[in-house]
């Protein structure tokens, strides 16, 4: 019995010694042997009070996956510097320079709309009406919507993007022919997205434009006359927006998403979502019926607490 107790005590003492050795000489800090194989080189001192912690990256808007700061794709602007709608000018309201650009481009416009069978140069008794979308985000181009209305269900629309540079390329975006979309709907069409990216590259802007204005310009290229609601500046006196307020979503990897509701769309307001890569190129556009809230009248109640 005494022999068994002694053996157990010896084993316990040996295990305790191993545990102490493991604590004072952790993995990666053991002693090393010198080159001659005889003299032991002591391990570097180790602070047992500082645990080894793997660095954790901070993920929040403005920082990428590598933890480095990401330059915002669109600059931050105050609400008062944003327009919630574009200015549209009829042919009579266009300034002389812009009207001259359109007149000089008519031959090219007629040639390129012929591929979409839009008959731009036909029907002299029922001409095409034009209106210019004044787009501050694309100052080196003018956006002109052409519409021919032959009655209910027989409306044709296309957009011409005309560069101010005489050596630039005129581009056509078909919207609808006699009430029908020629391809997929213009707001989500690859043609519209491609033209938008090309003219933005040709702009060679040194400063990114206001994100909401840029989104409205894209909508105008797709044939809309957009008007977006912003968050009320004074929540007590200003009316609350019926649709979703215009929103810019910045992702941690530098990409961005612009969301707004076109309250001027007919027959119902439409919500737009535009996804941009970190270089500012439009990747995808989504366009669908918006959810509208009818705001109730604000009331104020005073309670006398005694």
Provide a descriptive summary of the structure in words.
The chain has a domain at 79-289. Helix content is 22%, strand content 21%. The protein contains four helices and eleven strands. It has helices at 2-24, 96-113, 190-203, 211-221, and strands at residues 32-33, 40-41, 87-90, 129-134, 141-149, 155-163, 171-176, 247-250, 256-262, 270-276, 282-289. It has a five-stranded antiparallel β-sheet with strand order 3-4-5-6-7, with helices on both faces. Strands 8-9-10-11 form a four-stranded antiparallel β-sheet, with helices on one face. β5 and β6 form a beta hairpin.
Could you give a short description of this structure?
The chain has 306 residues and is α+β, with helices and mostly antiparallel strands. The protein contains 4 helices and 11 strands, in the order H-E-E-E-H-E-E-E-E-H-H-E-E-E-E. Strand 1 and strand 2 form a beta hairpin.
Question: Can you lay out the helices and strands and say which pair or pack?
Answer:
Blueprint: H1 2-24, E1 32-33, E2 40-41, E3 87-90, H2 96-113, E4 129-134, E5 141-149, E6 155-163, E7 171-176, H3 190-203, H4 211-221, E8 247-250, E9 256-262, E10 270-276, E11 282-289
Antiparallel strand pairs: 1-2, 3-4, 4-5, 5-6, 6-7, 8-9, 9-10, 10-11
């Amino acid at each position: 019995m005494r022999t068994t107790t002694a053996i157990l005590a010896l084993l316990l003492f040996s295990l305790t010694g191993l545990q102490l050795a493991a604590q004072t000489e952790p993995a990666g800090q053991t002693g090393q042997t010198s080159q001659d194989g005889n003299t032991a080189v002591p391990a570097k001192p180790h602070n047992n009070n500082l645990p080894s912690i793997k660095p954790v990256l901070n993920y929040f808007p403005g920082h990428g996956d590598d933890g480095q700061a990401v330059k915002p794709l669109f600059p931050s602007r105050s609400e008062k510097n944003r327009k919630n709608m574009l200015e549209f000018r009829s042919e009579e309201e266009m300034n002389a320079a812009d009207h001259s650009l359109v007149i000089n481009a008519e031959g090219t416009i007629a040639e390129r709309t012929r591929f979409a069978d839009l008959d731009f140069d036909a029907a002299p008794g029922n001409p095409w009406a034009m209106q210019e979308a004044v787009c501050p985000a694309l100052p080196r181009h003018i956006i002109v919507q052409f519409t021919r209305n032959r009655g209910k269900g027989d409306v044709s629309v296309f957009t011409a993007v005309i560069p101010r540079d005489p050596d630039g390329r005129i581009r056509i975006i078909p919207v609808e022919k006699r009430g029908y979309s020629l391809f997929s709907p213009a707001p989500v069409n690859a043609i519209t997205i491609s033209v938008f990216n090309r003219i933005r590259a040709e702009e060679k802007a040194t400063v990114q434009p206001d994100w909401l204005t840029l989104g409205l310009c894209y909508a105008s290229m797709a044939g809309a006359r957009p008007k977006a609601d912003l968050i009320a500046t004074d929540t007590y006196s200003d009316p609350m927006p019926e649709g979703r307020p215009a929103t810019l979503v910045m992702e941690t990897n530098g990409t961005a998403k612009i969301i707004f509701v076109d309250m001027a769309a007919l027959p119902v307001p439409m919500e737009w979502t535009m996804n941009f890569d970190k270089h500012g190129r439009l990747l995808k556009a989504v366009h669908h019926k918006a959810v509208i809230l009818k705001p109730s009248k604000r009331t104020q109640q005073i309670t006398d607490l005694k």
